[in-house]
Prior knowledge:
single chain; alpha/beta; nine-stranded mixed β-sheet; six-stranded mixed β-sheet; 11 helices; 20 strands; about 25% strand; binds flavin-adenine dinucleotide
Amino acid sequence: MRDVIVLGxxxxxxxxxxxxxxxxxxxxxxxxxxxxxxxxxxxGNGAQLSYSYTDAMASPSMVVNLPKYLLGCDPALxxxxxxxxxxxxxxxRFLANATRSSFERNTIEVLKLAMExxxxxxxxxxxxxxxxxxxxxxxxxxxxESLRNAEALSVxxxxxxAGQVILTRDQAIAxxxxxxxxxxxxxxxxxxxxxxxxxxxxxxxxxxxLLENDYGVRFMLQTKVERLxxxxxxxxxxxxxxxxxxxxxxxxALGAWTAPxxxxxxxxxxxxxxxxxxxxxxxxxxxxxASITDTARKxxxxxIGDRLRIAGLADIGPSxxxxxxxxxxxxxxxxxxxxxxxxxxxxxxxxxTGLRPMTPNSQPIVGSSKVGxxxxxxxxxxxxxxxxxxxxxxxxxxxxxxx
Length: 403
Ligand SMILES: Cc1cc2nc3c(=O)[nH]c(=O)nc-3n(C[C@H](O)[C@H](O)[C@H](O)COP(=O)(O)OP(=O)(O)OC[C@H]3O[C@@H](n4cnc5c(N)ncnc54)[C@H](O)[C@@H]3O)c2cc1C
């Protein structure tokens, strides 16, 4: 029997289950939470299907600004050093990826994956509802130097089909009139016409129904995975809080919780959690139609149906994922400063925090592992929602080839 257990029902586990079920595997999905997307980063992320804006996190500019991040002087990005050897090892690999050539290579590799995902999402949007909208994205720049840098990178990306265009301030406002109400000066924007948006939580919920009804996928929710077991170097069991399940094939897609579970069978993975926040409020008539990224303040604004999702902040350090009121306040105040009239900030504000499962090179880890029958689909960092359809399809190819 071609059966496979998928660990994790975030967007990466759910798309993995979809791709594997379409290949004819009998799939069981296990998650500690009570519903898909509830327990991790797929619940309240920035909603961006960022097919062209795929810039790696480790970059030369990050190194220049490192003292600012370490001293807590940048509200959007903070680094708290921790003496953990795993953090140090991850941090050194992250820095090694911050050279110009590594940054460009990593950005292009992620771009290729994102472009693959685009086709997958367009097809799946015909089968399930998830507020999918292909309205493009504007990255707004506050200085001529940052705009020039964006232009240089867009020339490289456009060789791979990104289709990005630099706009003057007036052209950007013509593209999305909401920018006339922008709270800060800006000099121009980068237009990514193919970028889209959608609600990854709704996506996971509706994908669950499709998987159960059309493919007979089984869900074991509220089931916490504690360890994996092997026999002669081959996966043999998934140990959960409610007992052990024997298996011959499994996929780890546990987002920021992947590394500790992989370690139970001797696999070491360079994935570190990077904490971010989001808020969701009713959108007003002055909300942008396109997705907008304020690059200086590292914040994204995106319409999901009649709601406005605002996401940002990256806290790197000994993160437990605990919601910190003071950091959420930073997100809220910065958002009000950027788009004061785009949403109802005084009504009900849905606050959320989540952990990006970040690798040093911003590329996800997809494929087989040193344990026979155990596969990996993890480390999707800042763009897991965007990349999930492509990584699932690549994973399914590898699993099929080994079956
Ligand atoms: C603030 C913020 C904004 C973001 N914005 C965007 C964006 O705009 N576009 C984009 O593409 N990406 C964005 N991302 C990144 C994206 O959300 C993630 O990369 C993606 O959700 C990761 O999906 P995942 O399935 O790997 O992990 P998760 O969604 O975290 O899922 C992991 C699952 O594993 C389960 N789990 C954990 N431990 C166990 C265990 N022991 N046993 C059983 N189950 C367990 C959890 O319950 C959870 O359901 C953002 C992330 C953050 C934090």
